[in-house]
Every structure is written in structure tokens, then in C-alpha cells.
Amino acid sequence: MNAIVKVNIQHRDVVVVAGLGAIGLSMINMASLALPKMVIGIDMREKRLEMGTSFGADIVLNPAECDVVQEIKKVTGGLGCDVYMEASGSPKSVNQGLAALKNLGRYVQMGVFAEEVKADWNIIGDGKELKVIGSHLSALTYASVIKGIQNGYIKTEGLISHQYALKDWKEAFEATQSDPDAVKIMLIP
Q: Which residues pair with 38 in a beta bridge?
């Protein structure tokens, strides 16, 4: 919700969320509550794409099966998206987002990277005059998120896909990569 508040989604906006893990799916859900023109979800796992639709995405795209930037431009009349929210932690997603955004678009970085990311900063300034927003979890939104869950606006069903005993932590961590249906794995003490 912190990212959603910071990016100030408008009704005319086309919003893209890249990375449909538990955080990205929640971003799809909350972005759709702002009633933008369109919400697009991006992920490489089929189960997460299906969940993206049920969490509020109008369109879901798999970058292994299509040119995501081309598809976004196709559905926006060649302009690009207004908002690109990076929740995957994939370095490729950064450049994909910069390419997909229209002039004066808003880029939100939520995902955490395992390595340094390189991008053409000329796109951000001279090229498109983009607004870049950093976001992470924020205690300032906890009360609103809890209220949204209680009222049924914010979905939680299916976000925790697996549960393991704490003693089976190694198997749980391996499942995050090996099980295509994994979304968020919970360890139970």
C-alpha cells in the first residue's frame, strides 16, 4: 500500500506491476481499487498470472512468451504505461519498465535485487522525464491494510501457497525456486 499511495494512481492511468509474488499480487489488488483505466500484471509463472487476473489485473503477460514492452504499447496506442511498479527483483525488469513507460511516467521500485542493476539514466531524464519512486514496507500503512483486509477489499486468499515446519526450512527455501505454484512459503515454528 505504501507504493500505491506514493505513486498516486489516477483513473486515466495504465498501471503495470512486474513480479506477481505475494507483494506484487497485493499491489495489483490495491492498484485496481484506485480504479485506473487498466492494470497489467507481469510474471513468468502460470499460476501467478492466473492469480494476477483474480486479484484485479485486466491483462497478464509472460515475458518468456511475448515482448512485454510491445504488448503494453499495443494496448496503449503506442504511448506506453503511466505507472510501472517493479516488484520482481529482476534486473531485466528495470529496463523493461523504463522502455514500457510513456513520457512523464512514474516508475516505482519495490523489488529487492541480488546484484547491482544498470540502466540508461538518459531515458529517465532527457529521454522521457520520468518520476522514479522508491518504496518498501511502511508501518504508516499497516492500519489501512488491516482495515482493507477486514472489510474484504484487500485479498489474501492464496498468497500463502505452502506451509512447512521450521525444522524443514531447507526444503521450504528450495520449494520457492523449484515449485512453479509457490507464491509465499510460510515456516511454522
A: 14
